[in-house]
Each structure stands twice: as structure tokens, then as C-alpha cells.
Write a structure and sequence with these properties.
Length: 422
């Protein structure tokens, strides 16, 4: 059976063989030993005893090594260490959470994030928590979810797929945050005002998934709140996520329905048009392929070439066909445009646009995010933050879609020219 694990869980079942692999130090000596190994250029690690699988087959650690050093084949794993009481300085160290097999003395995979402010977790951090949910063994495969939470918001949340040799770790935060933003918009609130966090609930009927090809259903709670000096405004609900896997890890993640406050379900689309959740899943699958290095990447700098300004386009291609393209025009985090275009079989499916500063087009708007979805050559949905879901019947809606498709073609031309495609 799966188990929902938090830093406060008790009753962990750990095999004797797994415990013997950890250094049997007294608590008073542990911090000195940890500091000495770090100081001498080794890689000590703390066993996160409450965050592995219930049968001990999968464990988690927090390792520390001096910056610039490569990860050891196998770190020196200890228990009952207060890293805050050691000589390890996070600014001078590479701190990482690893998924490991203690029995085989093998690193399965590292947890990395592109989210700003993300950090490896260990006990004793202020306003940082890690919870884990692991499923049962499946013909030697394993799966789970890791949820990193800050004071108000999710730092990142990952699906973990273990094929017995390697653990592939895929972020689901983007998908979940977009679904939660829609639930907040449905309550006639501005998602930009809210911080979003998640609580892991359960894998629904995991016994029904007996092989790797079977889909999984994850249920989790979202909590959206506006931190205030005297009060907190909270919107809560439940996401049910259907997950499918392949040899490369998470293949798709879809949200067939989101219950706001346990009551409201996502609105239905016209027949034949994908739901917003299906569009979300398509973008996440594309991003995962980019992260995994599945497609060839080609980057071209773009004029004007100015000091302090980065302007470039990167395309990811399968054969000679662009699958995903990102256009960046940046003078810094507070004045930039980052637009990403997604294609399927040469047909534009979706566009995600992030803008700050002058790129928002409004002096009083510091940041905006627009998501456009296309079906059979037509713009079918547009979500703007702030602003929420836009009315597809409004004047100029399809004209905007046509402009965006021309923009996608124009911005992809430097990549096709670079590879010599017609």
C-alpha cells in the first residue's frame, strides 16, 4: 500500500539491511563527523528517514558537497544529524535531495527545479516542508510524488517514475498552478493576488494499476490564500490528476475535473475541441521532452544587439520540424518577454506568453501572462492573468488568433534558416 509521508510521520518500517548502510554515530558526534567530511572534500548526506517508501526500497537523502566538486559515486549517509548545527554553509555548498536505493548503494535520481527560490530540503529549515507519497511496487517499477512547500506557496511538486535503475523526476507545478488559477478565476477573484500551495491526499485505487502501462490517479488539495496582516482570504478545492508513463518517465498529466470547494467542476468544451486541461497536458509533455533532451535544440541571437539586452530564439526540432520554440527579449527580470510556441505535426497548438515591464503594454501593469490555444487553425481559448478567461465571442478574437499564427511563423524562420530548411 502507498503511504502519505510528512516530516512528522511515525511508524516507518525500515529494513535492517538499510539501517546498516548508515553510519552508526551518536547524536553528539554526528554533526562533527558531517562537518569534517564536508570540510575534507567528501560528500556527507542526511537520510530523510520519514520520506522514503514504506518498505524501505526507495529512500531520500540530502547531500552536501563543496561547490565545484562532482557528486560522489556514493555519499557518506548518516542519520540524526542537524545540518543547521554543522559547518555546512549553503552559500558555499551544493545541497541536493537524491532518491536512492540503500540496499544497492545506488543513486537513482536527483531532484532539481527551475523554480526561483527552490532549495533542497532537510529538517530544521524555516518555512520549508517536504511531503512524499509513494505507490506500491509494480513489476520492479516505482512511482511517487514529492511536494516542496514554502511559507505560503508551493516551491515545486514532482512526479517520480522509477524503472528499477533510474528515477525520472518531472515537475507538475505549472500544470497544477494553471488549473488552480482557473478555479480562482471561477470564484471571480484575481489569481495574481493569491499564493498557491498543495497537500498530497492519495493515489486513488492504486491496486487497479498493476503494470507500468496502466494510468494512475492522484488526488491532492489546493489552498490559495492572500496573506494579509490581519487576516487570510482562502480558496480551497481538490484536483484529480490522471497520470500516464512511458520509458522516459511521465508522459501525460491531465486534470479531467477540478472541484472548487468540493463543488464546482470544470466547464465542458464544444464537441471535438480539447479541454484546457488537455491543452495544459500537451504543453507539459512538450516541455518534458525538451527537458529530457529528446529534440535537437537550435539557438539564434536576434538583432538589435545591444549591451544589457538579451534577444534570441531557441527551437527544438524533431527531424527538421520545430516542435517547440521560445522567443526571449530581455533587459532583466523586470522588463522582458518570453513567448513559447507549441506545435503538433507542424500545426500550431498553443502559445504561452510571459511579459514584464514595457512588454506588458501598460505602465501600471508590471506583469502579465497569456495562454492561447488553437484547434484546427482557429483560436479557441485565451486565458489572461490578470484578467481570467476571455470571451471567444468578443470582437477581434479570431483576428488576434490570425496575428499570433503569423507571429509564430515569423519567429520560427531564423531556426529554419539555420538548419537550411525550405
Amino acid at each position: 500500500m502507498f503511504a502519505g509521508l510528512t516530516s512528522g510521520s511515525l511508524g516507518r518500517v525500515v529494513s535492517v539491511s538499510a539501517l546498516l548502510l548508515c553510519l552508526p554515530l551518536e547524536a553528539g558526534e554526528a554533526e562533527d563527523a558531517f562537518s569534517r567530511k564536508f570540510r575534507d572534500g567528501f560528500e556527507p548526506a542526511l537520510l530523510l528517514a520519514d520520506h522514503g517508501s514504506e518498505d524501505g526500497a526507495v529512500s531520500m537523502i540530502c547531500s552536501a558537497r563543496k561547490k565545484g566538486l562532482k557528486a560522489a559515486d556514493w555519499p557518506s549517509i548518516m542519520e540524526d544529524v542537524s545540518i543547521n548545527e554543522t559547518e555546512v554553509d549553503e552559500d558555499a555548498a551544493t545541497m541536493e535531495n537524491w532518491i536512492v536505493s540503500l540496499k544497492e548503494k545506488k543513486r537513482l535520481g536527483v531532484v532539481k527545479s527551475t523554480q526561483e527560490g527552490f532549495r533542497a530540503w532537510y529538517p530544521g529549515q524555516n518555512h520549508h516542508e517536504l511531503s512524499a507519497l509513494w505507490g506500491p511496487d509494480q513489476e520492479g517499477w516505482r512511482y511517487g510524488v514529492l511536494n516542496y512547500t514554502g511559507r505560503w506557496a508551493c516551491n515545486d511538486i514532482f512526479f517520480v517514475n522509477i524503472d528499477g535503475t533510474d528515477a525520472r523526476v518531472t515537475s507538475m507545478r505549472g500544470l497544477l498552478d494553471r488549473a488552480t488559477a482557473k478555479a480562482i478565476t471561477a470564484e471571480k477573484k484575481d489569481p495574481e493576488s493569491y499564493e498557491i500551495s498543495y497537500e498530497l491526499m492519495e493515489f486513488v485505487n492504486p491496486e487497479a494499476s498493476v503494470s507500468v502501462s496502466d494510468s494512475l490517479v492522484l488526488k491532492l488539495r489546493y489552498i490559495a490564500q492572500v496573506p494579509k496582516e490581519d487576516e487570510e482570504e482562502v480558496i480551497e478545492g481538490t484536483h484529480t490528476v490522471t497520470l500516464s508513463r512511458d520509458a522516459k518517465g511521465l508522459a501525460t498529466a491531465t486534470l479531467p475535473g477540478t472541484a472548487a470547494g468540493g463543488a464546482k467542476a470544470a466547464p465542458a468544451k464544444a464537441a471535438g475541441v480539447p479541454t484546457d486541461e488537455e491543452f495544459d497536458a500537451f504543453r507539459e509533455k512538450s516541455r518534458a521532452a525538451v527537458q529530457a533532451g529528446t529534440w535537437k535544440a537550435v539557438k539564434k541571437n536576434q538583432p538589435p544587439f545591444e549591451k544589457g539586452r538579451k534577444k534570441f530564439v531557441t527551437g527544438w526540432l524533431s527531424g527538421n520540424v520545430i516542435q517547440q520554440l521560445t522567443w526571449v527579449d530581455s533587459r532583466g527580470d523586470d522588463d522582458e518577454e518570453i513567448s513559447t510556441y507549441f506545435w503538433r505535426d507542424g500545426i500550431l497548438v498553443s502559445i504561452s506568453k510571459y511579459a514584464t515591464g514595457s512588454h506588458t503594454g501598460k505602465k501600471d501593469l508590471p506583469k502579465k501572462v497569456d495562454t492561447f490555444n488553437f484547434h484546427e487553425g482557429r483560436l479557441v481559448s485565451w486565458t489572461r492573468l490578470p484578467g481570467g478567461v476571455q470571451d471567444p465571442e468578443q470582437a477581434g478574437f479570431q483576428d488576434l488568433g490570425a496575428v499570433l499564427q503569423k507571429e509564430a511563423v515569423f519567429r520560427s524562420e531564423p531556426i529554419y534558416e539555420a538548419i537550411g530548411a525550405d
